[in-house]
Write a structure and sequence with these properties.
A hairpin with an 8-residue loop joins strand 6 and strand 7. The chain has two domains: 106 residues, Rossmann fold (3-Layer(aba) Sandwich), CATH 3.40.50; 55 residues, Penicillin-binding protein 1b domain (Penicillin-binding protein 1b fold, 2-Layer Sandwich), CATH 3.30.2060. By secondary structure, the protein is an alpha/beta fold. Helix 3 packs across helix 4. The chain is built from eight helices and seven strands; from the N terminus they run αααβαβαβαααββββ. The chain starts with a helix and ends with a strand. The strands form two sheets. The chain has a four-stranded mixed β-sheet with strand order 4-5-6-7, covered by helices on one side. A three-stranded parallel β-sheet has the order 1-3-2, sandwiched between helices. Helix content is 43%, strand content 13%.
Amino acid sequence: MALKKINENFLPNLLQNEFGKELFSQIEDSKHFSVKGFAGSSPSVFAAELFLIKKKSLLFLTDDKEEALYITDELEDLLGKENVLYFPPTHLEPYQIEKTQNANLVLRTEVLNRIHNDKKPRVMVAPFASLAEKVMKKEDFKAISHTIKVGEKLDFDFTEELLPQFNFNLADFVSEPGALSVSGGIVDVFSYSNEEPYRIT
């Protein structure tokens, strides 16, 4: 079934049956409510319907990373990838803070960036472990961000600022977030907020 038809036909039709009418009328009448007996993909369908009706951002919490990824995949099919965010924990194993996965660190930074800079409502899916990690305030996040625009002229001394202030490491090749390489008039930077490095010439 095409995504357009899922959005336009399947989800709206849910409200036409008695279950849908009763459930969502209770949501309108009460700030606190509980729904039990979900099975299969019904939690994802419920969240997608609630998102489309309320037109507000939702936080979907799951027990673990595997369930979060599964829910994220279902919601992307229902709502489109542009409306769903996955917020992972940075650590590979619970309580093993020294085992930080750089890919997850980048993804968390991307999500925070979009939340801070884009007011568009979205569904954010997160395992409980990801919320146990502290997140800095919006003001602090902006203070440690360094934005470079295409066409902007830079003094190469800015690399000296990146190294100590933003915890970048000088390297021969940039292969992971936090790496910076300088070769002649070329600077390669692997940002914490992007899946691919940038080249500045």
